[in-house]
């Protein structure tokens, strides 16, 4: 195993360095349109687009290994977000230039009829970087295209990024335990209304099984399927954190802890 690679493997576990959606609410029901100022509106014609970038094979010059098992993740994510009503756009094995072109194009589309936007990024990585098939790029370059000043039709709407990639070269050894019209101001920060859900904490590897897929994406799909009808997004993500932390472990007792950064300003419900 190479310490400076974005991918390491052990006995099958690896690490990574339409429906037309419309919801009608009864008058006075919480969450109807803008009736609840603490809840994102969902009364749009569509829940939105989900872009999946799935990088499996890498140019030899990158020094990165093939990400076996990532197609399992991509297929599960397609099923999961399609079942929630998202329009899926999946692209495999994208170079840095292709990723940037794709996301810039999507950011310039008209999202005025959409309630939200989702982007899933599957690749090797490091702290603050994400690999195209030919080279690494800054993660912020990709996500920053959807800032409020650059993507006007997603202003004040949730923009959710789910990222399966390593953020360093450390393993977590674990430890035993005992047991819009509602705004008070017309101006909002350009970095508002984002969620960045990383598969692992800063500085650590992220694990992926070559047969069943990555721990984080397995848990995300399972928890969305189980709880998206009832729970708010952060409640769901807390359950994802718990499942990864408690239910997964490598054969040599290594653990993993997802990490979530959010600038969301309201509660988000998929239904």
From TrEMBL:
One of its GO terms (molecular function) is cysteine-type endopeptidase activity. InterPro entries: Caspase-like_dom_sf (IPR029030), Caspase_cys_AS (IPR033139), Caspase_his_AS (IPR016129), Pept_C14 (IPR002398), Pept_C14_caspase (IPR011600), Pept_C14_p10 (IPR002138), Pept_C14_p20 (IPR001309), Pept_C14A (IPR015917). Residues 184-271 form the Caspase family p10 domain. GO terms for biological process: apoptotic process; erythrocyte differentiation; keratinocyte differentiation; neuron differentiation; positive regulation of neuron apoptotic process; proteolysis. Gene3D superfamilies: 3.40.50.1460. PANTHER family: CASPASE (PTHR10454), CASPASE-3 (PTHR10454:SF198). This is Caspase-3. It comes from Gadus morhua. The gene is CASP3.
